[in-house]
Each structure stands twice: as C-alpha cells, then as structure tokens.
Amino acid sequence: MIERRKLERIDVDEAYISGDGASLRCRVVNMSEEGASVELPSKRHVDSTFKLMLEKDRIIRSCHLVWSSGNLIGVSFEDL
Question: DSSP characters for 32-44?
C-alpha cells in the first residue's frame, strides 16, 4: 500500500481526552507532528476542540476534531 501521509506517523499508547470538566481514557493509535488518530472506548460524541494528554510523557496538546468513524477520531494539533 502506498503511504500518502506527508509526515511519518509513530505508534503511541494510552492517553486522556479532557474538556468540559471531565476526562476520558483513550488510546492514541498513531501520531505525527500535526495530528493523531485516537481510539475511544466506545462510539461517543466528542467536542470539536479538547485537550489530549499522553500518559507516558504527560504532554498536553490542544486538539481540533477533524473526522470520526465509529469509535475512532482524527485530530489536528492546534498548538504547533
């Protein structure tokens, strides 16, 4: 399969989405400098903007929802 992404993606792991005073444990499937693919525990509504914190290094990124399909979402990072 031909890779069409302009930036290399790296595999990550556990993370948290936070917004509106609540947090949700999730799994980052892969990530680049500009965005990520995130697996939610179940299909659910996610606000168009939120914070994503990676568990391993505690880095918090401001995110913008780009797409969703079932329990997967794609986000772009706003704090580049």
Answer: -SSEEEEE-SSS-
Q: Angle 47-74-23 (CA atoms, 0-180°, nearest 5)?
A: 45
Q: What pLDDT is stored for residue 53 in this prediction?
A: 94
**CA 64 from chain center: how many Å?**
9
Cα angle value 36/75/5 (rounded, 5°): 55
Q: Tell me how crowded residue 16 is: count the other CB atoms within 10 A of its CB.
A: 15
Distance of alpha carbon 41 from the chain centroid: 13
Dist CA 68 CA 76 (whole Å):
12
Produce one character per residue of 28-54: b if its CB has 16 or more CB atoms within 10 Å, e if not: bbebeeebbbbebeeeeebeeebebeb
User: Is residue 37 a contact partner of residue 72, using CB atoms and an 8 Å limit?
Assistant: yes
* Per-residue pLDDT at 5 exceeds 80: no
